[in-house]
Structure to design on (298 residues):
């Protein structure tokens, strides 16, 4: 006699090897993956099924992704981080000192995916005066910057309002307090963390992105802290398009294919010389461009 099966749709809360945790309504299911080609990440929408007598469900298909946030791995290959994202929240703090080049690359990744972004300055009670020059640059370019403290809760109400719809991916360096932000926004986060950070064999899986429910249909995904990040060059002139001020100014360059390095008649370099474009941001663009060119020659 064939065992009765149950099935449905759900969202991937965490992925570990050949298994995933799936939110299916009010239940959390541990699921194996059917087929060697199926690769899932946090945020994927999937179809699951389970035999009535089985302890573990299975996933054999996934819905088409609206988008996917990827990073370049050590070999230059795209590595997915999370899928179906509505917003990227880049977290920095006075301590550890912000890596602004990392912030630039995260924002470039969001721009290239047409995803909204916000810069969160956590631990504001440590003093943010040394950061204000860079924050002014970002604000001038249209990137919202929110100063908060997950510990004292300063600014957290405004942050909750900003994230009350859609799925937000939290990214940033290790030690900036992303987990504290998650705990402040999601009252059930501690319980969810205990569940999400262990795989079917009870092993910790803290290196994977993790999904947390907020009110309504909103959610946040906490990505592991990183030392470096680079978005894949999935579109033509990805580095330029990731820097909004360089992309807009580049339209006035003498040559349509200007790299904004040494070419004559470059409007971007002129704007940098006149400080209409931040020299540090320009150097950040140059570094990302060189990375893409190096990868293209391999």
């Amino acid at each position: 006699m064939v065992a009765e099966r149950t099935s449905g749709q759900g969202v991937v809360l965490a992925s570990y090897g050949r298994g995933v945790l799936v939110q299916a309504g009010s239940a959390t299911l541990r699921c194996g993956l059917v087929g060697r080609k199926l690769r899932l990440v946090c945020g994927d929408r999937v179809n699951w099924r389970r035999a009535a007598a089985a302890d573990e469900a299975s996933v054999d298909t996934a819905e088409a992704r609206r988008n996917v946030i990827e990073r370049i791995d050590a070999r230059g290959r795209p590595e997915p981080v999370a899928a179906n994202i509505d917003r990227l929240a880049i977290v920095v703090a006075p301590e550890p000192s912000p890596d602004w080049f990392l912030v630039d690359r995260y924002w470039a990744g969001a721009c290239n995916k047409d995803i909204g972004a916000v810069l969160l300055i956590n631990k504001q009670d440590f003093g943010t005066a040394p950061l204000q020059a860079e924050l002014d640059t970002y604000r001038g370019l249209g990137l919202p910057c929110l100063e908060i403290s997950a510990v004292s809760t300063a600014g957290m109400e405004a942050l909750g309002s900003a994230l009350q719809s859609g799925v937000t991916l939290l990214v940033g360096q290790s030690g900036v307090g992303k987990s504290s932000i998650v705990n402040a926004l999601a009252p059930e986060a501690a319980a969810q963390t205990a569940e999400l950070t262990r795989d079917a064999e009870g092993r910790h899986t803290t290196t994977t992105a993790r999904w947390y429910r907020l009110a309504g249909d909103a959610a946040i995904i906490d990505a592991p802290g990183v030392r470096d990040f680079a978005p894949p060059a999935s579109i033509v002139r990805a580095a330029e398009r990731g820097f909004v001020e360089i992309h807009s100014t580049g339209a006035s360059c003498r040559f349509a294919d200007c790299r904004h390095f040494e070419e004559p008649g470059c409007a971007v370099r002129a704007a940098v010389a006149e400080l209409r474009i931040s020299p540090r941001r320009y150097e950040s663009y140059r570094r990302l461009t060189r990375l893409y060119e190096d990868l293209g020659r391999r």
User: Anything to note?
Assistant: Confidence is low (pLDDT under 50) at residues 199-206. The first helix runs from residue 100 to 112. The chain has three domains: 5-62, 82-222, 238-297.
